[in-house]
Amino acid sequence: MSTPLTPVHHARSLLFVPATRPERFAKALDSAADCIIIDLEDAVGADGKDSARAQLARCLPLLTSEQRSRTAVRVNAVGTPWHEPDIALLRGWAKQGVTVMLPKSEDASALRGVAEQLGAEAHLVALIESLAGLDSADALASDPQVVRLAFGHLDFQLDLGMRASPDEPELALARNALVAASRRARLPAPIDGVTTRTDDIERLMADTRRARAFGFGGKLCIHPAQVVGVNEAMGYSQDEQTWAQRVIEEAAKHGGAAFSLDGRMVDLPVIRAAETIVASMQK
Fold first, then answer.
1. Which of 160, 214, 166 shows the shortest CA–CA distance to 190?
2. DSSP line for 92-142
3. H or E segment at 38?
4. What's the pLDDT band for 280 if we cut at 50, 70, 90?
5. Other CB atoms closer than 10 Å to residue 30's CB: what's the count?
6. For residues 111 and 105, is the Cβ–Cβ distance under 8 A?
């Protein structure tokens, strides 16, 4: 991974906020959520797209640099009437730390075009929501400006005509594929989809523990009440935190060269994993 680590890289909880509710932006950023996702897509009806974009344009200048680094914007998909205006708005802000989430990511060349429009400093999260997206997961993950993959499991089910049961064993293949694609591209662990029940903590925790077991490192949230549980289930044990701190300390002594710690070889991917854990501890 060639880009510097940002909060989006290691976020456990990513809380959606409708772009039409700017009064919620600061509250969401002040919550326990690692990052927020301001939504110009599904949370905004067709007749409200222009107004939502205008509200976002007024609010982005009010965010501090630290807040921008914890903010992503889900734009409308490539090919929709609203995509190009969304990208035009974010072209400058992507250079100032705002991450762009691209829904319906299916075509690596289309994603590359978005990255080029946003500029070389832009970070992208590729949201995979279809079989075509899953088939292209390796190509999408390999783009140098993609910092994470995310799984839109509800739209994925619609695309395939699936009716997954509550524990979603039917989606195991897709989840495995996204984790594997992220690993092959040396990206941080991907982000799992939402839990639609905002009043069912047991369902939320089961979904989050399942995501963690598959190798996901984050989860999309649709309500502030979900954030603390997600952070807890996606977090790291005291032993893992202690190990990560030791790795970082030893890596500094070895000047970037591989070394052995407790009988295990430590190279750049292991150091990156340790950096992710240490970064999460600083939240």
1. 214
2. HHGGGT-EEEETT---HHHHHHHHHHH-TT--EEEEE-SHHHHHTHHHHHH
3. strand 35-39
4. low
5. 9
6. yes
* Residues 241, 86: Cα–Cα separation, whole Å: 39
User: Bridge partners of 179?
Assistant: none
Is 74 labelled a binding residue? Answer: yes
163 labelled binding-site residue:
no
Q: Are strands 35-39 and 13-18 parallel, antiparallel or unpaired?
A: parallel
Task: Give the residue ranges of DSSP H helices in 185-260.
Answer: 201-214, 227-234, 238-254
Residue that the structure tokens 């989006």 belong to: 8
The yes-or-no verdict on residue 57 having pLDDT over 90 is yes
Ramachandran sector of residue 130 (left: φ over 0; alpha: ψ -120 to 50; beta: rest): beta
Interatomic CA distance for residues 142 and 282, integer angstroms:
28
Is 155 marked as binding a ligand? yes
234: amino acid identity, one letter: M
Q: What is the pLDDT of residues 216-269, one digit of tens each?
A: 999 999 999 999 999 999 987 788 889 999 999 999 999 878 999 999 999 988
Cβ–Cβ under 8 Å, residues 111 and 133: no
Tell the residue number behind the tokens 């326990």, with chain if given: 32
Please, what's the b/e burial string for 182-212 (b: 16 or more CB within 10 A of its CB; e: otherwise)? beebebbbbbbbbbeeeeeeeebbbbbebbb
Yes or no: say if 229 and 204 are a contact pair by the CB < 8 Å rule.
Answer: yes
Cα(281)–Cα(26) distance, integer angstroms:
22
CATH 3.20.20.60 domain residues, the chain:
7-235
Best CATH choice for the domain 7-235 from the list 3.20.20.60, 3.40.50.2300, 3.30.360.10, 3.30.70.920: 3.20.20.60
